[in-house]
Amino acid sequence: MSASRHIPTWQLRARFAAALSAMYGAEVPAYTALVAVSAAVNADHAAWHPQARRLGSLDRVTAERHGAIRVGTPRELREVAVLFGAFGMYPVGFYDLREAAAPVPVISTAFRPVAPDELARNPFRVFTSMLATADVRFFDRDLQRRVQNFLDARALFDPELIAQARGIAADGHCPAETADKFVARAVSAFALSDDPIDKGWYDELSAVSAVAADIAGVRTTHINHLTPRVFDIDELYRRMSARGIEMIDAIQGPPATPGPAVLLRQTSFRALAEPRRFRHRDGTVRAGTLRVRFGEVEARGVALTPKGRERYDAAMAAPDPAAAWPQHFPGTDRELADQQLAYYVGGDPTKPVVYEDFLPASAAGIFRSNLDAETRLGAGSDDSEYSSAWLSGALHTELLDPYALYRKAATCP
Ligand code: OOG
Ligand code: NI
Question: Which family does it belong to (predicted)?
Fold first, then answer.
């Protein structure tokens, strides 16, 4: 009867994030523990530090997640773009993780809502990486060809799902009676598959990079991690460690400082080995395990202007960033605003614009901390032409500039 009732894209996004979270919690129990500890840290922190809410309401921050996925080809990336378009998530920024100190053979963007009111409704974002198959420093020509053939033969998404997503994105909403099914189908595209994995092929790609094997060694994709947000990541780190969950990393990103939180701080723990099935050379299928998925948590601060970002990069390049920090950053929101180092709505230091993106060095660190072996660059010079312009062309849609979005958020409340 209620055929006219429509679900707007932001509600679809909220349902998508919640359903992915439920699925991932069932797949990775440590994630459920992390979410519980995060919620407790947030409630305690907000009770004692009412001003923390200037970076987001307790409800928003406690519900907030980012995910990470990895795909193989421009075609797959385009399908992701269409699918996420139905959830009001658009590609923002270009990250080239091949350039990190520990290179990873991917280029990435983040799909997220962009308008401040959409972010306030539900800020779900997904860090999305594509295998840099064309970079000969990782893949020699023969392997490039075989990876390409393997990827061309697979379909990550049902064409019907993609067609439906295209329609929803164009309309800006979805009929109520088809919404649940649409969200469920989108979620299941990111479930861990129990299809047997070709062991020889997976091992060959693992020798290049564990990330290459995770992307192109299997016929499906999966959510790699889902990350809750906390107000106080140092406290989270202590509580998780006290529970005996080994946090493998120091905290990535800015050091803990007494002044305003800036950008993004993250830490992760290594998930347990997950059961997978392998098809061996002799044709037998046997049980095995893979350790590719993990847990991560993050804290967000104010977005920095290009000038602030230069200061950040300089502080982080120091031998001891925490000690160097005060030479680069003032200690109050007012000074950050007045010196135009960070974005505040209307320049008002009580209204910070939250950083909604990622940091390339941290992202590479997150990838790396969860791999057994480092990737070594092979000989040859890169003629792949990957760049933000290339990625925008591959996506068939504009890659949005994070700074332009922050500027806009700072000017119109
Ligand atoms: C993505 C790693 C980057 C982050 O939060 O910086 C990332 C991946 O492992 O696929 O998620
Ligand atoms: Ni992440």
Answer: Belongs to the 2-oxoadipate dioxygenase/decarboxylase family.
pTM of the model: 0.96
The residue whose two tokens read 């200037």 is: 54
- Residue 230: CA atoms inside 13 Å, Cβ hemisphere, count? 28
In order, the DSSP letters of 172-211 are TEEEHHHHHHHHHHHHHTTSPP-SPEEHHHHHHHHHH-HH
pLDDT of residue 1: 43
Q: Which residues of 108-135 are buried (b: 16+ CB within 10 A; e: fewer)?
A: bbbbbbbebebbebbbbbbbbbbbbbbb
227 C-alpha to center of ligand 2: Å?
6
Q: Is the pLDDT of residue 49 over 60?
A: yes
Contact assessment for residue 52 and residue 350, using Cβ atoms and an 8 Å cutoff: no
Encode 83-110 in three state secondary structure.
Answer: HHHCCCCEEEEEEEHHHCCCCCCEEEEE
Rounded to 5 degrees, what angle do the CA atoms 247, 249, 252 make? 125
Atom of ligand 1 at shortest range from CA of 370: 9
Q: Which ligand is closest in space to the CA of residue 366?
A: 1
> What's the average model confidence in pLDDT over 383-406?
95
Amino acid, single-letter form, for residue 264:
L
| Pocket residue to mutate for ligand 1, from 190, 225, 355, most atoms within 8 A of Cβ | 225
